[in-house]
Each structure stands twice: as structure tokens, then as C-alpha cells.
């Protein structure tokens, strides 16, 4: 089965665990997902079966939109409801101050990913190193990086909980953003809830199958009925890009009756980025 869709991962299950459940549900063997969600988080998870797993790297996944609730005073090594060490008492704040603090995080900001994250360090995920107590490797591997916050919307404040909606770039960590917001408000904090609403234009719609020709952000070249070019592409042969009048270093979708390919042009040669992807 070749299929791509947006699933809705429940709370307190790993993304891999939920993918295994979907594989059993749809009776498929080859499957994958794009954009891992932490076990405590829920929401939109882009899933593909069969040949459509090749499409992940071509999807536009920014901005990513999340709903989150920040628990002021929460002491957690993972900055969420897992690995909680305790709760510090915090004083109620003026709602205006909370709203003002949120707006200070718009734009680019520097941060260090949490110890408990899926960030790869020397072939291992950061949370594996954290659980094993290898703090030295974590410290060396978790480098400061940049995320961009496009929009930060205040939703509610009921002390000690601050709810907000964030539109961010790829590679952003909402747990880190939450901790920085808490710091700005004069305390520590961690997330008590996190839901991913969408990745780019992709959002949950009852696991409706998506048309790859509609969600891939490339110009389409309709070659249905062109048997000469079809034979060349079926066999993955090189040809002069002038034949299709395509520009250098630009990605295109070439569509036939039963499949499509993603190509580009480099040094006057056609490059096959993904070839003979079935059309369902």
C-alpha cells in the first residue's frame, strides 16, 4: 500500500509505538513518520506507507504549530510531565505581565535542546545518554542552536498554568521555549500539555489519504501520453534538461498516467531525486 496521511498520536505513547499500531491497523509492512513527537505529547504525525515514505524530505513542514500549557514551578529534568522532581510554589502574576512576556519571544532566539530529547549525539539520542547518566557527552553534544518563533498567541492563564499557541520553525523545541518563558516570569517551569496542530499545510483530517501531487511544493510537468520521455524516465536514463525546458537547481514533478518522479537539473544533466513513485 502506498499512502500518505496525517495521524493523531495519542498521549503517553512513543511515535514508533503508535506507528506499529497503525501498521497493524492498515496491514502494512513498510511505514515511516516525519517529525517525532515525545511520548507525553500528542497531535499531528505525518505517516507514509510503501513508496510514499520516500517523500518525507520533500515536504514543506514549516511553520509547525503547537498548543502547549506551561506549569510554572514544575521541576522536571525533561521540561515536561516526565522525569518530574517536584513543584516549587510560585506567586500569581498579573495576566498582562504574562502576555507581555510571551511577545518578547517573537523572532529568532537561541536555545539549547533539552537533555531528554531525540537529538542525535554520537549515534545515540540525547534522552538515552540522559537516562544512562552520561552528562559529559550530553554537555559536549548539545550545542546552542536557533529557532524562529513566527507567532505566539496567549490562550489562557490560570495560575500556575499558562496556555499558549506557537507557530515555529523546524527544529524548534517547545519545551525549551516554555522553560525560557518561565524564566522570563521569574521562575522555573515545564510543559504539562503539548499538542502539535500542524506541520506546514498538513493537519489531522481523520487520516484522510493525501494526494502527493497536491502536497509536494514543486512545479509539475504533465507528460501523460508522452511515451518517449516515459521510457527514458522509467529506465532512469540521463537526458538533457533542455528537453523539458527546466531550470538549473530547481525541483520538478514529472507526471505520467501511473507514476510520477521528482527531478532536478545540475550541470546540464537531469538528476533523479525520487523515481517511479506510484500514483494511487
What does this molecule look like?
It is a single chain. With 280 residues, this protein is of the alpha+beta class. It is built from 7 helices and 17 strands. The protein has helices spanning 15-26, 95-103, 126-132, 135-141, 174-184, 212-215, 227-234, and strands at 3-9, 31-34, 42-49, 64-72, 74-76, 84-87, 107-111, 120-121, 124-125, 145-158, 161-168, 189-199, 202-203, 219-222, 252-255, 259-266, 269-278. The strands form 4 sheets. Strands 1, 2, 3, 4, 7, 10, 11, 12 and 13 form a 9-stranded mixed beta sheet that branches. It has a 4-stranded mixed beta sheet with strand order 14-15-16-17, with no helix packed on it. Strands 5-6 form a two-stranded antiparallel sheet. The longest helix has 12 residues, at 15-26. It is elongated. Responsible for synthesis of pseudouridine from uracil-55 in the psi GC loop of transfer RNAs. Belongs to the pseudouridine synthase TruB family. Type 1 subfamily. This is tRNA pseudouridine synthase B. It catalyses: uridine(55) in tRNA = pseudouridine(55) in tRNA.
Amino acid at each position: 500500500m502506498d499512502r500518505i496521511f496525517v495521524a493523531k498520536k495519542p498521549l503517553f505513547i512513543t511515535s514508533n509505538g503508535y506507528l506499529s499500531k497503525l501498521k497493524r491497523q492498515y496491514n502494512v509492512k513498510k511505514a515511516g513518520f516525519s517529525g517525532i513527537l515525545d511520548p507525553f505529547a500528542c497531535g499531528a504525525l505525518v505517516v507514509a506507507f510503501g513508496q510514499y515514505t520516500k517523500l518525507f524530505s520533500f515536504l514543506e513542514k514549516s511553520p509547525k504549530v503547537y498548543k502547549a500549557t506551561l506549569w510554572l514551578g514544575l521541576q522536571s529534568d525533561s521540561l515536561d510531565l516526565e522525569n518530574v522532581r517536584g513543584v516549587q510554589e510560585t506567586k500569581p502574576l498579573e495576566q498582562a505581565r504574562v502576555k507581555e512576556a510571551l511577545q518578547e519571544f517573537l523572532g529568532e532566539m537561541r536555545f539549547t535542546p533539552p537533555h531528554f530529547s531525540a537529538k542525535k549525539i554520537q549515534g545515540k539520542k540525547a534522552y538515552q545518554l540522559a537516562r544512562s547518566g552520561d552528562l559529559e557527552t550530553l554537555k559536549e553534544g548539545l550545542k546552542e542552536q536557533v529557532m524562529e518563533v513566527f507567532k505566539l498567541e496567549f490562550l489562557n492563564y490560570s495560575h500556575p498554568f499558562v496556555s499558549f499557541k506557537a507557530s515555529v520553525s523546524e527544529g524548534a523545541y517547545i519545551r525549551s521555549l516554555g522553560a525560557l518563558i518561565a524564566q522570563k516570569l521569574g521562575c522555573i517551569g515545564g510543559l504539562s500539555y503539548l499538542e502539535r496542530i500542524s506541520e506546514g499545510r498538513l493537519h489531522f483530517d481523520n487520516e484522510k489519504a493525501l494526494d502527493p501531487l497536491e502536497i509536494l511544493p514543486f512545479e509539475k510537468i504533465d507528460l501523460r501520453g508522452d511515451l518517449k520521455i516515459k521510457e527514458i524516465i522509467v529506465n532512469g536514463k540521463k537526458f538533457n534538461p533542455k528537453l523539458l525546458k527546466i531550470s538549473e537547481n530547481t525541483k520538478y514533478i514529472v507526471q505520467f498516467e501511473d507514476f510520477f518522479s521528482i527531478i532536478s537539473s545540475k550541470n546540464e544533466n537531469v538528476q533523479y531525486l525520487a523515481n517511479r513513485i506510484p500514483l494511487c
